[in-house]
Structures are given as C-alpha cells and as structure tokens.
Write a structure and sequence with these properties.
Blueprint lengths: L39 H12 L5 H18 L14 E7 L3 E11 L2 E10 L6 E7 L4 E2 L2 E2 L4 H12 L3 E5 L6 H4 L9 H18 L3 E11 L1 H12 L3 E7 L11 H4 L13 H6 L6 E6 L11 H11 L6 E6 L8 H15 L23 H4 L25
Parallel strand pairs: 4-7, 4-8, 8-9, 9-10, 10-11
Antiparallel strand pairs: 1-2, 2-3, 3-7, 5-6
Helix pairs in contact: 3-10
C-alpha cells in the first residue's frame, strides 16, 4: 500500500520557490484535495457535474486547457521556468541479454540533479521510442524506489523490446537522499513535475530516441506522476498510469496533492479528468480490487472512454483490471503494459517471448542497489550540486 519516505533531512517547503501571491488568487487559501477527499458516491456526482460542461471534442479541449493551466498554476509552474542546460552525466555501462544499463544524471535546475538509470536495446540502430518510468512510494530498504525488482524488470523488458528507458528517482529517494534531500514539503509536487518535464527534454535530446514516440508509465505515486506529466506535456504520446486513477482518491502524499492543482477559484477537476486530458493519445488504465482503483471498470474508465469517443478514438483507451489483486505493478499488471506499448510504440514482443510464445522476464538481471547509484566514490557529485541541507539555494524561479 501507499507509503511515504521519511528521511531526517531538510524540508522542501523551506525552499525559496514561491510564486507571487496573485498567481494563486490574491490571499485566498490553497484549496487542496488530499487523500480520500470525497466519498465514492460524491465522486460519481462530481463526474456527472463535470460531464455536463461539455458535449463534444472541441468543448472538452477547452475544458482540458483549463485543467492543464490549473495544474501548472497550482504548481507555480505557469509560466514554465527557463530551461537550463541538461549537462547529462552518463557512466558505468553494463550489458546483459538484449539490453544495457547505465547510470545517468542531468540538471533540471542549476545544480539540481535528477538521477536514474538508462536502459537501452543492444540490437538495432534507432531512433528508438523513449519510455519514462517514475516510481512510487515504496520505501523499505529492501524494496525501494527505482531499485525495486519490478522496476528493473519492466525497464529491462521495455529496452529489450526496443525502447530507450529512463527510470528516475522521486525527490528524496535514491541519490537525492544521499545528498540530504527529503520527500516531504508542499513544493515537492512542483519539483517532481518539473523534473518529469525535464526528463522528457533529456530523452528527446538524445539522437537514439524518436521524439514522436515518448511514453510514461508508473505505479502508485509513479502513476500520479505519469498522468500529471501527460496532462501538461503534449510530447508524451502514450501513457500507462497504474493503480492510481481514482475519482474519489486524490493521492495521499504532498508530491501528489500538496499543491492546489485540483481546485482553485478558476478550475475544479479530479484525477480522472487529469488522466483524460491525454485524449486522444493512447492510454491504458491498470487497476485492482483492493485499493482506490477498485471502481475503474464502472466509474473511471467509462468516463474517460466517453471523452475518447468524442475524438473518434475509443479504440485508443483501454483498461486492465485485477479484482483480486492489490496495490502494485506486479507481473500480471506488467503483461498488458508490454502488449499496449508494443502496439502503440512499435515495440517487438517477439524479443521477450519464450519458445512457447509466452512473455518471459527470466532473462532480466536484478542488479544490487549499490550498482545503480549515480554518484559514489568513483563518480562523485559535481561541485555545483545543491545539497538538500543548504540553508540558501542558488536559484530563483
């Protein structure tokens, strides 16, 4: 289930990122929609009320634009900050059966390094599709962030199928934690969304990546990152938010609901509509029966499908529901993701099928956590890297 990392280091809320008060509506208090913000019945009534505000694709697009602006304004990202050079760091390439792994960092802001692992195919010349893989709030040292076996498996599988894949740390996890950053404070939503936008910048800057075939998929908090990024960045062509799109649950961590991105004096929406902003781009919803996505077949999916239908694109949105399962990105949930991305990105399923034609993950090598860190004694953090414990941070937005 959902867990939030607690590391004894400085809070993001103290950082000097505040936008002018007028940007959020004079002195109005933020209107946050957090966790189980409303009952399931209230959620259905809210969706029905939203649906009455549009009746065709053009009217939905107008609403989608207000939703997009509401997210960016609530996250203090409207207008978007000036993009600094990425200054990518790539090292320690390892080759396995049909894929390779490298340790990667780039600057999302001056001195602020987004860290992760790049998985690439060892066959073909590209340009390949690019897939972003944000992770969720799994914080147990033995089952942690982008180092989790399920993360490594899907990233390796996507790479062997023919994609360049970037798995990256949430703020306060992985390499961030080693530099004194933590995963709490209201502004973590702002920084994570910006990091995801810059991760698209990184993939599309690579000569081996096709900028028209970018996808994102993650589970839990990574699912929130997936649909938030897709809503605000049209470069994302395909999305698979896993176990997170819910009409009544808005995310329980500040990185999901700590800023007024769902409700303000100029807009009101829910995660269902935010996910639907993807229309008519292909999207797969993955859900289960033991968390807040239990109603997907009857509530969330029909609402989103209706929007896709307005574009004549009902065939581009699908769902995979597992009524007897819980909150994870397990093998049963990964299988439909493999098929969906193969279909819409032009990836090869035959590269991951066994002699009987079944999809197999047996070839994936699960690397130890220490091998996946970007910065260590051999590869120290750059001299300009911002320490999360710093009292003053050297940038303004």
């Amino acid at each position: 289930m959902w867990k939030c990392l607690a590391v004894p280091v400085v809070a993001l809320a103290a950082l000097p990122w505040s936008a002018p008060a007028a940007q959020n509506g004079a002195d109005e208090k933020p209107q946050l929609c957090v966790g189980n913000y409303q009952t399931e019945e209230q959620a259905k009534e809210q969706l029905a009320r939203f649906a009455r505000t549009y009746s065709n694709a053009a009217e939905w697009q107008q609403r989608a634009q207000r939703i997009r602006e509401g997210i960016l304004r609530g996250a203090e990202l409207l207008p978007l900050p000036k993009r600094c050079p990425l200054n990518p760091i790539v090292h320690s390439k390892r080759e396995y059966q049909g894929y390779s792994v490298e340790n990667v960092a780039f600057e999302s802001l001056p001195g602020v390094f987004v860290t992760g692992n790049l998985y690439r195919p060892t066959k073909g010349t590209g340009p390949f599709p690019g897939i972003l893989c944000p992770h969720g709030h799994w914080s147990d040292p033995a089952d942690y962030g982008r180092f989790r076996p399920d993360m490594q498996k899907r990233c390796a599988m996507f790479a062997r199928m023919g994609a360049v894949v970037f798995a990256y740390d949430m703020v306060g996890y992985g390499d961030w934690a080693n530099a004194g950053w933590e995963h709490k404070g209201q502004k973590v939503f702002k920084l994570q969304l910006w990091d995801s936008i810059r991760a698209v910048d990184y993939l599309t800057s690579r000569s081996d990546v096709d900028p028209k075939r970018i996808a994102v998929t993650g589970a839990s908090g990574g699912g929130t990152q997936s649909f938030m990024l897709t809503a605000v960045d049209d470069r994302v062509a395909v999305s698979i938010p896993v176990v997170m799109v819910s009409a009544h649950f808005f995310g329980g961590c500040v990185c999901e609901s700590g800023m007024p991105v769902h409700k303000s004096k100029t807009h009101e929406t829910s995660n269902v509509e935010i996910a639907a902003v993807a229309a008519p781009r292909p999207m797969l919803l993955v859900s289960d029966g033991k968390d807040w996505t239990k109603n997907t077949p009857e509530v969330e999916y029909p609402y989103i499908r209706n929007i896709y239908q307005m574009f004549g694109a009902a065939d581009k949105v699908e769902y995979a529901h597992f009524p007897d399962e819980g909150h994870d990105y397990g093998r049963s949930k990964r299988l439909p993701a493999y098929r969906f991305l193969a279909k819409h990105l032009g990836l090869s399923l035959t590269e991951v099928q066994d002699a009987n034609g079944n999809i197999s993950e047996d070839f994936v090598v699960i690397e130890p956590k220490d091998k996946l860190y970007v910065f260590n004694a051999e590869h120290p953090r750059p001299a300009n890297a911002v320490d999360g414990k710093a009292e003053e941070l050297p940038w303004t937005w």
